[in-house]
Amino acid sequence: MPTLNKKKKKFEVPNVYIIIMGIAFISMLMTYIIPAGSYDRVINENGTEVVDPSTFHLTEPNPQNLFDFFSSFHTGLTEMSGIIFFLFIVGGSFAVIEATGAIEAGLGKITQKMSGKERIIIPIVMFSFALGGATIGMAEEALPFIPIMVTLAISLGFDSMTGAAMVLVGCSAGFAGAFLSPFTVGVAQGIAGLPLTSGMGLRIVLFFAMCIVMITFVYIYAGKIKKNPTLSPMYEIDQAREDKLDFNNIRKMEKKHAIILIVMAIAIITFTYGVMKLHWYLTELSAVFLIMAVVSAFVARMSLNDFAGNLTKGMATLASGAIIVGFARAILVLLTNGGVMDTILYYSAGLVEGLPTGIAAVGMYIFQCLLNFVIPSGSGQAAVSMPIMAPLGDILGITRQTAVLAYQLGDGISNIWTPTSGYFMAGLALAKIPWQKWAKWFLPCILIEYLVGAVFVVIATKIEYGPF
């Protein structure tokens, strides 16, 4: 009989939608296994709603069934509609500007001037975004820069992974090593009763440590891709991109291109000022980018139909990635509606009780790292966990400042790896990078970050990081 040579089927990483739906399904099952429970919520002196750690009590079970499972995705999409529609408008606006040729002409000029010293731009850009993350908690606000940086990186001989990393990894370095961020450290310190900006010395050291680790990782990777572009996990995808530059036919800079680039610069300055001074968020930022697109189209003398066509084309290219943001939210929806989120928090906190101080501090850090996979919001995680972790630290002999540091690291490190992080998945959508490719590429760096974070938590325990 003839022998049939069957090739072993190569394992394929599941599509991110399958991964998220799988996690959501496990979350649904957890509502049948874990008892429902709840903490009472109170408003503290800073006006923040937090849990009262002394009020945990079991509640009526509310297990989520299969219908709830499928319904949760619509709920998640509804709750995350703000950032989803923001993505559509930003993507559509940049598609209009790309159609004018201004970005191509501008990047062509930059590429010519950076010839032979392309990698210098990587640490400069990343450190700038890291400062934004460390001081104003820059996250969603950095998303509009991603399409520009991706196109720039590819034009300089790198890949889209490098371009997205300059923004996402840069912000993450600042987020994990934040020393002034009012949305993470500020909220956590307020809940813990610590003076705002206290403990800044160690946090500044942490900030530079995270910057060195993450910038070095991206810098070395970019050098390898520069030498051999085929090593990029994004090589085939990048080759098929429509927004890359053709160096044999780069547009010359015209007056209209220069005006459009000035319009873009004004828009960026406007939304930066609006975020920092006027407390603008997604609605106002969407308006800025749509105005930028309209003005740019007018300067380029683009017809109304061409404007509409480019706008909708840009939105369409982001549809799949944008919807992931809402799908990921379904996990939190199921755990919250099932009444088990607080129970998980209660029993997890109890696991570190009775452990030696150093081990308990690392345990608190690990707990915060895991919690960030289901509550990726920095201020949201602080409101839920810090009212429990701060007094737990008192019992274990761990300073409250150390508890805040454990929260800060646990919250900040995995924000650009977990598929449940809304702004991260939005960033990948803008960069057109599949989550599976990013997750595999960035895994070594995130493991190093976790190790660095653990070292700093141990140091904080040893020096009795304070003031208390």
What does this protein look like?
The chain is mainly α. It has helices at residues 16-33, 66-79, 81-100, 102-113, 121-135, 145-155, 160-176, 185-192, 200-227, 235-239, 255-277, 282-299, 304-317, 319-337, 341-351, 357-371, 378-396, 400-413, 422-431, 435-462, and strands spanning 37-38, 41-43, 49-51, 57-58. It has a two-stranded antiparallel sheet with strand order 1-4. It has a two-stranded antiparallel ribbon with strand order 2-3. Helix 6 (145-155) crosses helix 7. The termini are far apart.
Question: Which descriptors would you attach to this protein?
Answer:
two-stranded antiparallel ribbon; 4 strands; 2% strand; two-stranded antiparallel sheet; 20 helices; 468 residues; globular; mainly alpha
Output the radius of gyration. Answer: 23 Å
Shape: globular
**Mean of pLDDT:** 86
The proportion of strand residues reads under 5%
Largest sheet: 2 strands, antiparallel
Q: Quick one: how many beta strands?
A: 4
Class by SSE composition = mainly alpha
Helix-strand pattern = HEEEEHHHHHHHHHHHHHHHHHHH
Low-pLDDT segments, ≥5 res: none
Question: How many H/I helical runs?
Answer: 20
Rounded to the nearest angstrom, the distance between the terminal CA atoms is: 79 Å
Spatial ordering of strands, largest sheet: 1-4
Helix content class: 55-70%
